[in-house]
Specification:
The protein is of the alpha/beta class. It has 10 helices and 11 strands. The strands form 2 sheets. A 6-stranded mixed β-sheet has the order 5-6-8-9-10-7, sandwiched between helices.
Length: 250
């Protein structure tokens, strides 16, 4: 397929016009016209770009791309080296941030709920652009047992904040840096809230609101949407896809 065809398809499929975001969604750096092989990854870091070059990829699709609001506008240093590598090798870079978090079929939150075996998973309407999801476990679990499930699924040790006693059945979650949505989770009346990051204030909020909080890692909670998107494109358009997981403990 062509670059323009891919861009148009993803714009419509991910409904990017529905989101007010912190970075441009779509084609961020233009490369070659014909796309036969794509590489996906969480963040457009130098290590991912270097692997895409080694694999002779035509395009890179990421969740965290370039040109974030508030960052320096000049193209120097680290940013210059990344963009230079893309341009020198004629590789397209596509970035999809909030549209990939919120996609109802293969977004980060949909995939996270699926992998954690959460039933009746759906976005909460009317808040946070539909990026907060909620659902239920098939049976109540202890906080310790639920921590073990998170750790096994995400292959990292999640930080649990909350009393060790009590059971968890109703759950809300939002991938990435969404720790301050814990207030919304408490208003929903859920037993637990999962996100990627944690702040000092999150401890006090969780304890005082009586909500079990699990900080499961920004990278770890956002691995799965971009993988699912790449797999979808490979099936739909018969193009080659490879996900590259650049390890990130944060």
């Amino acid at each position: 397929m062509t670059r323009s065809e891919l861009s148009r398809y993803l714009s419509e499929f991910l409904q990017i016009s529905n989101y007010k975001d912190y970075a441009p969604n779509g084609l961020q750096v233009e490369g070659r016209t014909k796309i036969n092989k794509i590489v996906t990854g969480v963040t457009a870091c130098q290590a991912l770009i270097d692997r895409a070059v080694e694999l002779n990829a035509d395009a890179i699709l990421v969740h965290h791309g370039f040109f974030w609001k508030g960052e320096p506008e000049v193209i120097t240093g680290m940013k210059q080296r990344r963009i230079k590598a893309l341009l020198a090798n004629d590789i397209n870079l596509f970035g999809y941030h909030l549209p990939l978090d919120g996609h109802p079929m293969l977004g980060n939150n949909a995939e996270l709920g699926r992998r954690l075996d959460i039933s009746d998973a759906e976005p909460v309407e009317g808040v946070a652009q539909g990026l907060i999801w909620q659902g239920r476990l098939d049976a109540p679990m202890s906080a310790e047992a639920f921590s073990s499930r998170l750790n096994n699924v995400l292959n990292r040790d999640a930080l649990h904040i909350g009393q060790s006693s009590g059971e968890i059945q109703s759950v809300a979650w939002c991938s990435g840096g969404a720790q301050d949505y814990i207030d919304i989770a408490a208003d929903l009346g859920v037993d637990a809230f999962i996100s990627g990051e944690v702040s000092e204030r999150t401890f006090h909020s969780a304890m005082e609101l009586g909500v079990h909080y699990f900080a499961a890692g920004h990278h770890a909670t956002e691995r799965y949407g971009i993988q699912a998107l790449g797999g979808h494109l490979a099936r739909e358009f018969n193009i080659e896809h490879q996900f590259i997981d650049i390890n990130n403990p944060v």
